[in-house]
Design brief:
It contains 50 helices and 8 strands. By secondary structure, it is mainly alpha-helical. The chain has a 6-stranded parallel β-sheet with strand order 3-2-4-5-1-6, with helices on both faces. Strands 7-8 form a two-stranded antiparallel ribbon. α20 packs antiparallel against α21 and α43 packs parallel to α45.
Length: about 1000
């Protein structure tokens, strides 16, 4: 089989469901004799050709003809049409001889005695050239009936054409007739790629045919850049579908398809940020991953691979722009924070030659002008963009950028320009010569004079090598260390990395690399932090700095690696630091204990806690503590001592402190401390709200261990609310992360969530089995927290001996805390295991303790169990009092399954209970404006934390799939919540929701 007849390879297309549906409908219409046309428009790498491949693969039973525009053939008339039709051979068997002769002359086809295609059976979805099934091109005139039907459908065609060679309409009609003749034997698919590069004659002839074959089984699919190129304008007869970037969920799916096994979350996040949803960028970036990048020892890529398809596509677009325009684009690419007034000042120095940086003289390492021009795909000399007098006048700068705007390369956004396709910015910068880049940086440094621009100025001076290397490095390092959390471009870790590269002295270089790694870590770039730490190894590093580096490595492992490895690194750091910096040494011990806690290694946890006994004083000194780490540790100590309210206050202080400093990377862990306290207090709405935020931030900063813990908390909150599907989805995701990284706490929390769900559904045996198993129950703190769930399940299944053993542990722990909520849980468990007739006093004691505590949800659980016991003891009147109280509380918490149990008990106690109902929302349009606003806020306040999060994401334009991907739930669950939100708010559409929440 020749290459021309091989079937097109069909790949999995992600995020293009609507476009694939449109292709399917077009092909289905063509199969039934009603053709059509469609054009897919989009920038380079958006997957236009992949959609044509998909269409060709789906076109079973079609003759598939393919061609594409070639920029080098743009000036050759009929070149693309020749590529499309030449493999069909001689048109004579299909057309009257005058038309066949005209096409032979127009397309320089060989005479009838030299056919290019052999006869053979028609194969499904195969192509010749780019295009047809050979046999379909061979003989066979259509039947008389078929010809008459075509003639009736297209009365504009001459019966006996006599076109002259110069008649423009003649070749167009001949192509039309040839395609119609082929369609008489079966449906035809014509795929035309890169319409904007087609020669004008082919462009016009193919669109002419596409507009006139609607009554034939012929489908046309075109692709074009944005905007469609030259020639006849596209009209309603050729609809256009614009391809945008993939949504985050589709981009993640595509990376899953392409990436090697074990791709780290931080590297994945880096690739997603750089690709901006462009499919080809994702594919090429994934293909460029080296073993060092995959291992985290080398920095992730900063642009699409040089020389790749996307790189070439963008450099070709740049080469078509004027030289001065390209020079200005380099300024925009060199500083993402560049506003238009600063751009104008940089491009048009006020004092002519006096203000021009001395960049005309060759410097060491600069490329020659010819080399620079080649690298930029057409030539951007270092001094491009300056006039003969030493500068472009300010009034002309914006005019010089107009060609880039017209070409769709640049867009104006407020007071600055941005690349229409963000992938292009790094390409513009990397494709320029070193001399051109230095010149651009020198111009920018010369116009940044304000104090808040100190870091940017130092960055540009260092990039331009505009001074002594040692002075530039010191200036850049000082500016980076002094920069605030929202300094903008460049990020401090990049500046410190550059300062280290400019530094020769070993100890100073190491200090700057270590500082860069620290800043990369706290700004949410753990992959880059690992790569920077790896560069410390060959350097001479003082013992104290080595300890600090090991402490940072431990932090990175704890957030996104193996918790066992993190524990060992923290202990090593403590060994280096305790004798040199006691504060940092103690912090290393605290973190080692935390790693043991996460892993469920409690022997290590307790041993380290004894070594760090000084931390016991932290709780007493908490009002005077400002370190977030110490506040969190103090909060953890408060939880162990049963002081839940104080623990929540301390954790909240730590979160507020981190928010004030802009420490986004620290927030996922700090929110974990808040959630821990809220869980003990029974504040499940707040648990959901904070865990959703923590999950989002952990995903954005590559902290998949912390993300796993937030998923487990969300699963537990969903179990409390009786949301079966969400609980299972999130628990499964949490357990997957926990099993991969040895996270004992996440595994135990996820398992507890599933057990709680089982118990609320009346499946006591399943709940007891989950909590009895050794797998995923190794975390002692979570196991004790889950003990009341296990004892209730075991009591229902008659496993008294196992329940009594678990209760002994719970008694000792609850007694040590003297916390009324914990003591109430222990008393309730005693009541469940008590002999007949002895439980009532224990239940009443448990309720007394609950009323002194803070956890309303567990109070309702005890009321439900007590009410059930009283009903079984044939005291329905007394039972109903407690059951009503439990039902009211469960409905407030939105705990559907527990509320259903309370209703069932009430009915069994002789009480008629109406089914649950959603309060009818008042239509806002019938209210006065003031009352309308107040009612809106009241309705929104009644949404659960998850419902509110979904509502706000949908109001911002997110699709159900995007919401599901971000919240780790199924699209069906999102749809279910959305229907409830609409009903509760009295609205009917997403537009109403956006208006309501605006």
């Amino acid at each position: 089989m020749s290459p021309a007849s091989l079937p097109a390879r069909v790949a999995v297309l992600r995020g293009r469901d609507a476009e694939q549906d449109a292709v399917r409908r077009l092909l289905d219409r063509a199969r039934t004799g009603s053709g059509g046309a469609m054009l897919f428009a989009g920038g380079p790498g958006m997957g236009k050709t992949a959609l044509l491949d998909h269409a060709a693969g789906q076109a079973r039973g079609f003759l598939v003809l393919r061609t594409r525009g070639a920029e080098s053939e743009h000036g050759l008339p009929h070149a693309a049409l020749h590529r499309l039709l030449r493999p069909l051979g001689d048109p004579g068997p299909h057309l009257p001889e005058p038309q066949a002769a005209l096409l032979r002359a127009t397309l320089h086809l060989p005479p009838a005695s030299r056919p290019l295609s052999a006869t053979g059976p028609r194969a499904p979805g195969t192509t010749a050239s780019d295009g047809p099934t050979p046999a379909a091109a061979a003989g066979g005139r259509p039947s008389a009936a078929r010809r008459r039907a075509r003639t009736a459908a297209a009365p504009f065609r001459p019966v006996a054409p006599t076109q002259e060679a110069g008649d423009a309409l003649g070749p167009a009609v001949a192509v039309l007739e040839w395609l119609a003749s082929l369609a008489a034997r079966g449906p035809v698919l014509v795929c035309v790629d890169d319409l904007h590069h087609l020669d004008a004659a082919s462009h016009d002839l193919l669109l002419f045919a596409a507009r006139r074959l609607a009554a034939e089984p012929v489908a046309f699919l075109f692709t074009a850049d944005r905007p469609p190129g030259h020639g006849a304008a596209l009209d309603d007869e050729v609809p256009v579908r614009v391809l945008g970037p993939l949504d985050p969920a589709a981009a993640r799916q595509m990376l899953d398809d392409l990436a090697p096994a074990g791709l780290g979350e931080d590297l994945r996040a880096s690739l997603e940020r750089l690709a901006h949803g462009v499919p080809l960028a994702l594919a090429e970036l994934t293909g460029s991953l080296t073993p060092g990048r995959l291992a985290g020892t080398h920095a992730p890529p900063v642009s699409v691979p040089p020389g790749g398809r996307l790189w070439r596509a963008h450099t070709r677009r740049l080469a078509a722009l004027p030289e001065a325009t390209r020079a200005l684009l380099l300024l925009v690419a060199a500083d993402p924070d560049l506003d238009i007034p600063t751009l104008v000042r940089a491009a048009a120095p006020r004092h002519g030659d006096a203000a021009r940086p001395d960049d005309a003289r060759p410097r060491h390492g600069d490329a020659a002008p010819s080399e620079a021009g080649e690298r930029y795909g057409g030539g951007v000399p270092p001094d491009a963009g300056r006039g003969h007098g030493g500068g472009v006048s300010p009034g002309h700068v914006l005019d010089l950028l107009e060609p880039a705007e017209v070409a769709g390369v640049l867009t104006a956004e407020g007071d600055r320009y941005a690349f229409a396709e963000p992938v292009m910015g790094p390409v513009v910068y990397a494709a320029a010569s070193p001399a051109a880049r230095r010149a651009a940086h020198r111009l920018l440094a010369g116009v940044l004079h304000h104090d808040h621009q100190r870091l940017r100025r130092a960055w540009h001076r260092a990039a331009a090598l505009d001074g002594s290397v040692d002075e530039l490095a010191a200036e850049l390092a000082e500016a980076a260390q002094a920069a605030g959390p929202h300094a903008g471009h460049p990020e401090p870790y990049l500046a410190l990395e550059r300062a280290a590269e400019l530094t020769e002295r070993g100890e100073v270089k190491a200090a700057r690399l270590a500082a860069a790694a620290h800043h990369a870590s706290i700004s949410g770039h753990p992959q880059r932090a690992r790569a920077l730490l790896a560069r410390l190894s060959p350097l001479t590093v003082p013992a104290e700095m080595r300890g600090q580096a090991e402490l940072l490595r431990g932090n990175l492992e704890l957030l996104g690696g193996e918790t066992g490895s993190a524990h060992d690194r923290f202990l090593a750091a403590a060994g280096w630091l305790l004798d040199r910096d006691r504060s940092l040494g103690v912090r290393a011990l605290v973190r080692a204990a935390e790693a043991g806690y996460f892993a469920g290694d409690h022997q290590r946890f307790l041993a380290i806690a004894r070594r760090a006994a000084v931390l016991r004083r932290v709780l007493l000194l908490a009002p005077h503590v400002h370190s977030t780490a110490m506040l969190v540790w103090a909060g953890s100590a408060g939880l162990l001592l049963g002081d839940d309210a104080n623990a929540l206050a301390l954790a909240t202080r730590a979160v507020e402190s981190a928010r004030g400093r802009g420490g986004a990377s620290a927030l996922p862990q700090l929110l974990s401390a808040v959630i821990n306290a809220e869980l003990w207090l029974g504040r499940y709405g707040s648990v959901t709200r904070h865990a959703i935020e923590g999950l989002r931030l952990a995903q954005e900063t590559g902290q998949h261990n912390t993300a796993g813990q937030h998923l487990a908390w969300l699963a537990l909150a969903a179990a409390v609310q009786g949301d079966k599907e969400t609980c299972r989805t999130r628990a499964a995701a949490a357990l997957e992360v926990a099993d991969a990284h040895g996270l004992g706490v996440a595994a135990a929390l996820g398992n507890w969530a599933l057990a709680h769900l089982d118990l609320s559904r009346g499946r006591a045996a399943d709940a007891a089995g989950r909590l009895r198993a050794e797998l995923r129950n190794g975390h002692v703190v979570v196991r004790v927290m889950a003990t009341p769930t296990f004892i209730e399940a075991a009591a229902r299944t008659g496993e008294r001996q196992d329940a009594m053993a678990a209760l002994d542990v719970l008694d000792r722990w609850a007694g040590s805390t003297r916390n009324p909520d914990r003591l109430a849980l222990a008393a309730r468990c005693h009541a469940l295991l008590a002999e007949p007739g002895a439980s009532e006093e224990l239940f009443r004691h448990a309720l007394d303790l609950h009323h002194r505590g803070s956890c309303e949800f567990e109070t309702a659980r005890t009321e439900l169990l007590f009410g059930g016991a009283l009903r079984r003891d044939r005291r329905p009147g007394a039972a109903r009092e407690h059951l009503h109280s439990a039902l009211d509380a469960f409905e407030r918490f939105g705990a559907r399954l527990w509320a259903a149990q309370a209703r069932a008990e009430l009915r069994a106690a002789g009480q008629a209970v109406p089914p649950p109902s959603t309060p009818a929302a008042r239509p806002f349009s019938h209210l006065p404006e003031g009352e309308r606003q107040a009612d809106r806020q009241a309705q929104i306040a009644r949404l659960t934390a998850q419902q509110e999060q979904i509502a706000r994401m949908v109001a911002e334009g997110a699709t159900n799939r995007e919401v599901a991907a971000r919240l780790v739930i199924s699209p069906r669950t999102v749809d279910h919540h959305l229907r409830n939100i609409f009903a509760q708010l009295g609205i009917r559409s997403r537009v109403d929701l956006a208006r309501l929440l605006s």
